[in-house]
Structures are given as C-alpha cells and as structure tokens.
Amino acid sequence: MSIRERLSGNEAAAIAMKQINPDVVAAFPITPSTEIPQYFSTFVSNGEVNTEFVAVESEHSAMSATIAAEAAGARAMTATSANGMSLMWEMIYIASSLRLPIVMSLVNRAVSGPLNIHNDHSDAMGVRDAGWVMLFSENNQEAYDNLIMAHRIAEHKDVKLPLMVCQDGFITSHSIENIELIEDDKVKAFVGEYKPEEYLLNKKNPIAIGPLDLQAYLFEHKTQQAIAMKNAKKVILEVAEDFEKMTGRKYSFFEEYKMEDAETAIVCMNSTAGTAKFVVDNLRAQGIKAGLIKIRVFRPFPAEEIAKALENCKAVAILDKADSLNAAGGALFEDVTSAMYVNQKQVPMVNYVYGIGGRDTTSKDIEKVYTDLDEIAKTGNVSDPYRYLGLRG
Amino acid sequence: MDNLIEIRWHGRGGQGAKTASLLLADAAFNTGKYIQGFPEYGPERMGAPITAYNRISNNPITIHSNIYEPDYVVVVDDSLLESVDVTAGLKKTGAIVINSTKDGEELKKFLKGYEGEVYKIDARKISMEALGRYFPNTPMLAAIVKVSNVMTDEAFLNDMQGSFKHKFAKKPEVIEGNMKALELALQSVEKI
C-alpha cells in the first residue's frame, strides 16, 4: 500500500532523494530550491541516508562536485534554480558530454535580470540544448515520481546522460498538497544499484575522463550524445511501464487530457497544465470539445508523437513560460510547430508567452486561450501567432 | 468541483497566517480531504501585509493559481482593513472572519457593502488568556474551522492535539495553552 501524505514539492523531491539514497549530494542554496538540500542535509545528519553531503561554495562547484563523484563511479544528485543554473552553465555541458548520469532537481525560476525569485521556465529553456534529459512535473506527485524514475533512465547503458526533473518554483515547490509516496524498500528495489561500466576508481581498468577532443573526434562524440538522446525515448517508456506496474500511475512522453475528440487544444508544461485541466473540465461540461497536452519529456523531444497527437485538432495553442526574445516565438512553440511541419501535419497554431517572473496564470487566462482557439478554428487564420497572455496593456 | 472550498488569509508578516493556512491544510488532510495550502510569497518582512490560501475538496485539486473568488476570507489583523481590499471577489454565499475588537457596524464600514456573513473574534483577548502572549493565528484557525464548517469541532480539536504534540515536541508546556486558545475561539466567534 502506498503512503498517503501531504507535502510541498520541495519536500517531495527531498523525500525521493532520501529513498534513492545517492552516494553524493553537492548543492548550494538558492530560492526556491533551497529547501531540497536543506531537508536532505537533515536526513544526512540524522543518519537516515549514507550520502556524502558536500556543502559547496557555489553552484559551479556543486555541478563540478557531482561530475567528479559520478566520474569516480558514484551516484550523485543536486538541486538548483535560475541563477544557480546559470552559474553551473559551463559544467552542465561537461556533465552531459562526459556521459555522466547525474540527476538534478531544477525548481524553475526566472533568470535575472532584473532580479526576480518567482517562477517561469527561463532557467530550463536556457539549457535545453545542453544534452540533458529534461522531465517536467505538474505537481508534487510528478516531481517525486519523476525523480524515482530518473536514475533508471539516466544510468541505462543505452543512455548514460544527465537528467533534470523540473517543477514550478513556489507554485508547486512551496504548496502543500496530497501525495502518494512509495514504500522505501520498493523504491530501493526499483531504482537499483548503480553499476557503471567504466569509472575512475576502477583500478582494474584505468581510464581518463574528459581529455582534449579536437577535430578528429569531437564531432563523433557529440553524435554519440545525440544517439543516446534518441535511445532515451525507448528507455523512458520502458521505465514508465515498470513504474506503472509498481504504482498504477501511468507516464509517457506527454499526458493527453481529453484529446480523443478534441477540436481545440493547449500544449503546456508544469503546473499550468493542472489549471488547464480544470478549465477543460468546465468547457467539456458546456459541450466544448477542448483538450490538453501536457509535455512531460521535453528532452528528448517527442516530435513525431506530438504531431500525431495534434493532427486532428482544428486549432492549437502552445504556451511558453519563457520568452525566447527572438522575434519569432517561444522554444516549445518552435519545437511543436517544427514537429508538425516535418511530419506534414497542417493545423493552425498560436503561441502565448505567459507567466513571466511569476505572473499568476488564472483559469480565466486559460479560458481566454480556448476562446481565441474557437475563433481560429472557425477561420483557420492566425494573423499574429506570437502573443502574450496575462500581460498588462 | 461543487464541494471545493477556497479560503484566503490576510495577515501581517510574523503573525503566523501562513502557518495557520498550513495547519488548516493539515487538519483537513487528516479528515481525508484533498488539500492545498500555499502563501503568496513577496518581500518577507515583519509587519508587511501577506496573503495565504487554502483549497479543500473531496476530489483531487488540479488548479494551480492564486484564489480570486474565495468562499471565505480570514483577516488576522484588522489594521489591514484600511489598506487591503479584503472582500475582493469574496462570494456572497461565503463569509469573512475578522480578528477585531471594533463593533460590528464599524467593521462593516470597511467591507464595501459585502452582502455575505460577517464574523468577528477577539483573538488578542483569547491568546492573552490562553497563552499569555499574542499569537493571533491559533484562534483564527479555530474561527475559520467553525465558520466554514470544513470539519466538526471534535475532529478538529483531536487532530490539533496530535499536531501540537508533534510541533511542540520540545516544549510540551505550550500545548495546553494552544488547545485552550482553540477551544475558546470555537466558542467565541460571533456573527455580526
């Protein structure tokens, strides 16, 4: 039997880490992810985990220490947000290129400046091409479940890539909600032991990690990362299947909510998907055929599957919680529209940049998007595809 | 959706409105409900106006936004009435509970013609009597339980006894006073 609890998203992430019991955690505090290493360090001092906790002096060092630990052959985790992620930037790419399956909680927050501590997805979008597997979480439950599945995906021999689990800063990280926890022994059995094929502390097979890699090889090595990211798709589904057997909770690349006969649909990530579900239920009660696609796996991007899921819609809105400032549209919008084009699906699509810097996104905002979509569905025209939602006039 | 109850708390930094919202979430959780408890984070300073929220339902809650049309509002400090629009969006079918010593007619002047039920409670008096210090959040927690009827008095008191035992494990001497504050508050919240 699962354990009925009520936890904030940060507590849920810390509990998942406790149950995973990694060899090393290195972290530096930054709002709104601070509580994760804070709670975890309590587990360390209470002897509830065997983890070596490294209280580093910066996020650059946090990522460096987890890289070193993984390279040595240990299972390592960390957590950060926004500018902490920015300071890790150099090491983020090194972690993925060295094929080290580090797992990180990224509690999404606006990257400065000006200074803002609240939620948007600009931190995650900044590292979307860094070669990390990126999972997004609607609520505390998904932040927890994604972490429990994370190592199985990241450490798989066909993947060997670092993985980040995102959740919305404050909105879910600091909100107490119901959650179903899995028993410690079941998590331990599910996650399994980390047995790297090659690692620095293996004296029987001495290796070098991260030496100079010039014209002769870097291209091939980068392509291996790209292949690993493709392989991750298969592994993510296999791990989700095992997870469903254990918990009954079903995960895939994305959640299709009332999409079977949907004429209009929103595509979004993290907590806003919950608000959109509330709106979809209300619209369905009025006979309006609205649906929702909540992206869970943003990297690898499930392009073909998304295109198939949206092909029968009459109008689709993609919601981006980060502005790409590129005069064209947000990152998720570009990925989805590109997936449609390449797979030869023609559906009118519109982009809404929303929720920047913690601007609250209400059910009324989401209703407005569906109203706009009804209009687009009637005419088939999208004269201004790059829009804002919740922006003051 | 029909059974969803939404509550908005207005307090000042340091008065424990956030803690009260989390304790209410806990108590409702312990009676089998689905809950949310979350503060609206801003610059956190002693005395600055703060807002916190609760959603309580028999069904899973998916909505993740602040609450704009609450069923109930709790005002932990009546000095906020002059600066904060406490009845904004408050449903007529709901109620507002105010910690105040002002008389009913005077309080109503601040409520912009709010047509729903208005309750008041003297949380300072209760807190001083039960705890010897001013912690308005404990009486206000009991007051909103009474007014919103999200659970019975008995279930609430039983649950809080357990919570306080856990919360005050290192200073058990304050448990009795806190329980007394809750009991007094349940009895003395009055409709005006």
Strand content of chain A: 15-25%
The proportion of strand residues of chain B reads 15-25%
Number of helices of chain B: 6
Write down the Rg of chain A.
21 Å
Classify the secondary structure makeup of chain B into a structural class: alpha/beta
Largest sheet of chain B: 7 strands, mixed
Q: Helix and strand layout, with pairings?
A:
The complex is a heterodimer of chains A (393) and B (192).
Chain A (H helix, E strand, L loop, with lengths): L2 E5 L1 H12 L3 E4 L7 H11 L6 E4 L3 H14 L3 E5 L1 H16 L5 E6 L13 H5 L6 E4 L3 H15 L8 E6 L7 E6 L2 H8 L26 H30 L6 E4 L6 E6 L2 H14 L4 E6 L1 E3 L3 H8 L4 E6 L10 H12 L6 E6 L8 H17 L6 E4 L4
Parallel strand pairs in A: 2-3, 2-4, 4-5, 5-7, 6-7, 10-11, 10-13, 13-14, 14-15
Antiparallel strand pairs in A: 1-8, 6-12, 9-11
Helix pairs in contact in A: 1-2, 1-6, 3-4, 6-8, 9-12, 10-11
Chain B lengths: L4 E8 L4 H14 L3 E7 L8 E9 L14 E4 L19 E5 L4 H5 L8 E5 L1 H9 L5 H12 L4 H15 L7 H14 L1 E2 L1
